[in-house]
Amino acid sequence: MCGIVAYIGNKPAKSLLLEGLKRLEYRGYDSAGIAIMNGKLNVARAVGRVSMLEEKLETLDGFDGSLGLCHTRWATHGGVTELNAHPHKDDKHGIALVHNGIIENYSALKTYLKEKGHTFTSETDTEVLAMLIGELYEGLGSDLEAAVQAALREVDGAYAIAVICEKEPDTLVVARKGSPLFVGIGAEEYIVASDAAAIVAHTTHAFALDDYNVVKITRSGFRTSTIHNVPVTPKIEQLELDLQQIELGGYPHFMLKEIFEQPQSMRNCMSGRIDAKDGRVTLGGLSNFAKDLTRAKKVILTAQGTALHAAMIGRYLMEDLAKVQAQTEYASEFRYRNPIIEDGTVVVAVSQSGETADTIAALNEAKDRGALALGVVNVVGSSIARQTDAGVYLRVGPEIGVASTKAFLGQVAVLTMITLFMARRRMMSADHCTDLLREMEQIPAKIERILEQAPRIKRVTEKYIDRENWLFLGRGYNYPTALEGALKLKEISYIHAEGMPAAEMKHGPIALINEGMPAVFIANKGRQYEKVLSNIHEVRARGGHVIAVATEGDEHIADHVHDVLYIPEVAEPLSPMLAVIPLQLMAYYAALARGHDVDKPRNLAKSVTVE
Ligand code: M6R
Fold first, then answer.
1. How is 476-540 classified by DSSP, letter by letter?
2. Could you give the CA distance from residue 131 to residue 119 in angstroms, rounded to a whole number?
3. 84 lines ligand 1 (CB under 6 A)
4. What's the pTM?
5. Which of 25, 414, 473, 544 has the lowest tally of Cβ within 10 angstroms?
6. Tens digit of each residue's pLDDT (9 = 90 or more) over 280-335
């Protein structure tokens, strides 16, 4: 996903736009660009971070106006070049446009526009949209709002856009379909952004655009309509985002901040939802669907990346504790596999952002086939939250680090609560539920104990930092944890890592093991402990170096491995919430030791809004 910020008001736009853009940089950071209206349209673009654009602007005049827009890009159509960076312009009227999303029929539109004599300078779908608005502009009475509406009627795909035009120097037009966009309302000023994080420093009074909405904004007011020009009344709300939540607060990186926030974010996630005394879970979002969940025949959990790993743990929980058939699906595969959805199927879309295109597509496929759709989402009001029948928010606060940490934990905690909500209504005894809820209440304090070991986890990680291939192995509930440990390491340290069930290793991957290869085993006390010990010996016998995540008090394991990282004792179904913490820290310290930009890993973006 890319980031958009636009401003119209009485203040100098440039600094305000750049400040907002920096807050959105985690969404994409290949290149950045800005357009400011100052009598005429001035555009500057730069490859690289927002700081590169800032440096360039220091050498340029003409960027002093109070109407403008800007963008930070995660490349989809066309490579990372200045010509492909946004804003894109039309070739006739001084129209500048920034865009998040994909124009799917851009190729046909480009052919049409070329036949009309337009010349393109980039490989992007966005330039096609700018050109189309320009092509329609004159024929619609030189009215930017009308031209944007008309152009969007021709477009297939997803968009959040902001548009300005030299011929209408007091107008900003914005629109959305399938990609978030918010309008913040200040005193005679408006700040538009694809993420509330860029707005809250200026105002908390805002509204989110609905799909197919177009807003024309001037300094004296705004008008909201559909792309068919039907007036719409937006729902203005207070943004519930605290500036502190989106600032580093003394930490060197958002990822580290978010790892250390996990005790508190777990408390927030569970607050008011679990009652250990009565063995009860209360999930307001599901209360109207309790019967459907009690009678559910099958649960399909669908997601991508880290969220999929959380979903896999959810599957184990649901089968084990709620005794319901459950399966997990890569959202990207599910949609195209002609899936069988029978009566009584519940589909659960798990997503931090709620904007992941693959997950949205899978969700809609399941809904079309008659499944009850639930969302397990962090971002309030996101597309998945809106498109599901019901759901449970994570309540872990904004996650800025590209590598997901506290959202993973929140997803696992929410899936645990949904499982217990179902299990109690199916066949779990109050005593069993009470026991697990008591253990859940202790999770935050236990995470704190693991975090105290951060310096030791750092030392252990640094011992292996020159190794290019790592294995992460676990069984049962901690097989997905092993996958998550491997993904974290890959994402930010660029070390090759594979996660797999510990028992699977001997069926082939064992051939990879050579002298000194690090193998991280999740070897906490549980049903498969002895079996994991055997797998550890298989690795050691071939020269591998074993780092074990083990249960406090298990002194015996130290005789079998090279390094041990301890986690407090916990009921097995809840163990991933503790076992993942040392793995998150290992990934962080590995990336740091290798000198990488932890919060902005290469090639990644926080939320992937293209299929
Ligand atoms: O926003 P979502 O949870 O739907 O995102 C899904 C994945 O793109 C995401 O978890 C990704 O794998 C992260 N980079 C993991 O750290």
1. GGGHHHHHHHHHHHHHHH--EEEEEEGGGGGGTGGGG--TT-EEEEEE-SSTTHHHHHHHHHHHH
2. 9
3. no
4. 0.88
5. 25
6. 999 999 999 999 999 999 999 999 999 999 999 999 999 999 999 999 999 999 98
